[in-house]
Specification:
By secondary structure, the chain is of the alpha+beta class. It contains three helices and six strands, in the order αβββαβαββ. Bound molecules: coenzyme A (COA).
């Protein structure tokens, strides 16, 4: 949420690194040389009744690199990584009306619901979140 203090961002990313070290999170980045242009994370469910499942989260592409297919490429790589890790079901949620909603639809994700007022956006208002899933071939 803006304004985002660097200290707050560091705490967030340290949490991501800790989850990666514990084996429950995978971070994929799109690189242009040394420059990170975009990223997405896979959160691996650890509970026994859901260890076939993963959540795609925090997909973003820097403004300078948008509309060049990077998000699509990250999602394609995310799917093959998830499959390699034995996951056969992906879930993802995103803000209704945002660019990622169209992307999920065009990638073949199935919309299974929408919850009004689920998350707060940068301007402080609550907005609707749409929930998607995708079965991966085993
Ligand atoms: C959503 C986001 C990741 C898309 O990244 P991107 O690299 O520009 O996306 P791509 O070029 O791979 O486009 C993939 C598809 O997304 C949709 N899309 C992306 N940007 C769009 C836009 N501005 N308007 C409409 N559709 C858009 C299109 O369906 C597009 O497919 P197409 O190019 O065949 O039409 C990027 O806009 C972003 O980081 N937004 C802010 C963070 C965010 O909303 N993240 C999603 C959280 S789940």
């Amino acid at each position: 949420m803006p304004p985002l203090a660097e200290s707050e961002a560091r705490i967030y990313w340290k949490g991501v690194v800790a989850a990666m070290r514990s084996g429950t999170r995978v971070l994929l980045v799109a690189l242009d040389g040394d420059l990170i242009q975009g990223s997405v994370q896979i959160d691996l469910e650890t509970r026994a009744n859901g260890n076939h499942r993963a959540e795609a989260m925090k997909l973003f592409v820097h403004r300078r690199a948008r509309r060049r297919g990077l998000a699509r490429a990250l999602m394609v790589e995310l799917e093959s990584t998830a499959r390699r890790l034995g996951r056969t079901l992906l879930v993802m949620d995103t803000r209704q009306g945002g660019e990622a909603e169209k992307m999920c639809e065009s990638l073949g994700y199935v919309r299974y619901g929408a919850v009004p007022g689920y998350a707060r956006s940068g301007d402080g208002r609550l907005h609707t979140t749409v929930f998607f899933c995708r079965q991966l071939d085993e």
